[in-house]
User: Fold this.
Amino acid sequence: MRRLLFIVPAVVFLVIATFLAIGLTRDPSELPSALLDRPAPDFDLPPLPGRDEHGFSRDDLGGEPVLVNVFASWCVPCRVEHPLINRLAETGIVVHGLNHKDQAANAQAWLDELGDNFTRVGHDLDGRAGIEWGVYGVPETYIVDADGTIVHRHVGPLRPEDVEREIRPILESLKR
Amino acid sequence: MTRFFLVLALAWLVMLPPTADAALRPDELLEDPELEARARALGKELRCVVCQNQSIDDSNADLAQDFRRIVRERVLAGQTDDEILRFMVDRYGEFVLLKPPVIAGTIILWGGPFAVLLLGAGIAVMTARRKREGGEAADLTPEERRRLGELLGNDAVRAGATEGRK
Assistant:
């Protein structure tokens, strides 16, 4: 009985310490995606005027694994990650762009300056499609598999190591 | 004295939280006060996912404004509160609710305080029972009584010592 008096506080301490240790290593700004492993949401976006006639809609997803990159000309981290997105597209990966709450002219000028390797670009002026996707910050990058299911979400700018550690391995596993 | 209360009243005014609906702009509001009240109640329950610890009504983040607009559109369209909250949860996860729902993942959160309370009550009952079973503390030895009497500087304790031995 007396020994219990010492063991119980020690156990309680360990449990609390474990929970706090887990809590401290998690990034609170990285929210779990509610859409993970669910079909991509319905959306139908007009094109950036002058870029093409297509726009970007739910029908463009499925058939093959693709990346969907949420970007905006006003978003500084997007500017940082964009060369990497372009390079990914050059290696044969299909990347679609979701232009989030942006003026069309600004977005087009931004793409002209930094390069545009997107297959489809949708102009989401009022951010509705973004909300359908659960976007809460830009940039965000999603991987959608051949069935049109969202299999991965990356919040924040992609760095080369993110591509090597997350994006490429997941795309590889989808090909098999 | 009057001045003291005046200062006190002013201090209290300063400490009052800023009005809750600070972020709402007049042009966002619905015309029907009843629907607007519903939208406000919903707005207080939804988290602004950008600022995380503010409700969408309190936040002037862009996304919070979009959320408010969506809530109002859906209120106008005649959706129930549950349907509107479900719409947000489907897209942003349970995290978007400021008050976590009671589900498997939040059992520890909701049940934890009660579990700790029960544990404490259990320990209290056990301790009390043990005390009762253990009986009274052993009487002081004559030597201890003598020392206590010396320290207190009177004979009362020494007298008690003789009584106690009866």
